[in-house]
Design a protein that fits this description.
The protein is an alpha/beta fold. It folds into two domains: 102 residues, Ribosomal protein L30/S12 (60s Ribosomal Protein L30, Chain: A); 156 residues, Alpha/beta knot (3-Layer(aba) Sandwich), CATH 3.40.1280.10. Helix content is 35%, strand content 20%. The strands form two sheets. The chain has a seven-stranded parallel sheet with strand order 8-7-6-11-9-12-10. A five-stranded mixed sheet has the order 1-4-3-5-2. It is elongated, with a radius of gyration of 20 Å. 43% of the residues are buried. The chain binds S-adenosylmethionine. S-adenosylmethionine binds next to helix 10.
Length: 270
């Protein structure tokens, strides 16, 4: 069982270190990130990811949701830190902070760890900028049982509080890989199933696409879409018809429609 540490000063060095994790620089330097909420932290623990420490309000320590997380985390060796409401608010950076905040180690994999045959469906995101889009894609990837999400090129930080929040806990269930454009091109060249780039200039209507497992869906960046290099690397390009005034779909919406279209046809009874 872990010891419980009580901290009442907002200038305590540990509190400052935790708060600094809102800044990308500090996340890069420490390799750590924040995840908020009892449910999210419980999901992490259920998936075998143990927080290094959790912080919660001393006056909420016996609330059911906090108790469950506190006990499970303590049993797994997590350090427990009790604070007052004002400090938790400062750590959270939100007016209405969640009751528990966890500090976790980042886990990002390289493509050498990716075995396409491990799952029938995968998602790749080239240059995704918006942490909300990234998080929503990870959540959908989790929902369809995808093997992982591959980040290509320069992207938003997948471990920013906004990105983590948008995953709704799926960041702990879906492996995240990082790849340069060249590494992604090489992966697609040796991909054993179907690789589909989603693009407005796609050749095929997505309803006509034949998917063979493992299928990888490749989405482009919010501003300018898939680069020519990635378009060339994909086995086929698919478009979602745009019938109205809108000229494109939100990136995470397009990714979700494509993932479910592929899932439907890869696993018709799933
Ligand atoms: C906001 S869109 C980018 C729009 C950009 N102006 C373009 O020309 O591609 C972001 C990504 O979502 C996907 N996407 C959005 N709408 C789509 C559609 N109608 N058909 C296929 N993919 C789409 C593509 O992967 C695209 O790169």
């Amino acid at each position: 069982m872990s010891d419980v540490r009580e901290i009442s000063s907002p200038t305590n060095p540990l509190i400052k270190e935790i708060r600094a994790l809102h800044m990308r620089k500090s996340r890069i330097e420490t390799g750590r990130f924040l995840a908020e909420g009892a449910r999210t932290i419980r999901e992490a623990l259920d998936n075998g990811t143990v927080p290094e420490l959790i912080v919660y309000r001393a006056d909420q320590r016996d609330e059911p949701a906090v108790t469950v997380v506190r006990k499970a985390a303590a049993a797994a060796g997590t350090a427990l830190v009790e604070v007052n409401a004002a400090i938790l608010e400062k750590i959270s950076n939100r007016d209405n902070p969640q009751s528990v905040i966890g500090v976790f180690r980042q886990k990002i994999r390289s493509l050498s760890e990716l075995d396409p045959l491990r799952a029938p469906l995968w998602l790749a995101l080239e240059g995704v900028r918006d942490p909300g889009n990234f998080g929503t894609c990870v959540r959908t990837a989790d929902a369809v049982g995808a093997g992982g999400v591959i980040l290509i090129g320069t992207t938003c930080d997948p471990f920013s509080p906004e990105a983590v929040r948008a995953t709704m806990g799926s960041i702990f269930a879906v492996p995240v890989f990082a790849a340069s454009t060249q590494e992604a091109v090489d992966l697609l060249a040796r991909w054993p199933g179907t690789s589909v780039g989603t693009a407005l200039q796609g050749a095929e209507d997505y309803r006509q696409v034949k998917f063979r497992a493992p299928t990888i869906i490749v989405n482009g960046t919010e501003q300018s879409g898939l680069t020519q290099e990635m378009r060339d690397a994909c086995g086929k390009l698919a478009k979602l018809p745009m019938r109205g005034r809108a000229d494109s779909l939100n990136l995470s919406v397009a990714a979700s429609v494509m993932l479910y279209a592929a899932l439907d046809r890869l696993l018709p009874d799933g």
